[in-house]
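Q: Could you fold this chain for me?
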Amino acid sequence: KYAVNNCITITDENVAQTVAMLEKKYFSNEPIIAGECATPGIISLIAASENENIKNKLELSDESNILLIGCEGDADENLYKKLLNEGIKKLI
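A: Sure. Below is the predicted structure, expressed as structure tokens.
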């Protein structure tokens, strides 16, 4: 009765870079303050969009509507600053 059709797993490798991309307005007109727990959905969507096999399996297209929920801001301010600084270095 209940099932999951697809599942994506990710590593922590791109968390810092994604935190920085959100803060530096890569995905919006306003900066988004998002901690490490808010990034997996974005990382998964980027990875799926860049892999034609996964993109087709998930039926992603330019017409797709996707809801991503970020569950936290900078809940741990020190960790957020550390990730942001690491991520900015990766963007340069």
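A (continued): The longest helix spans residues 77-91.
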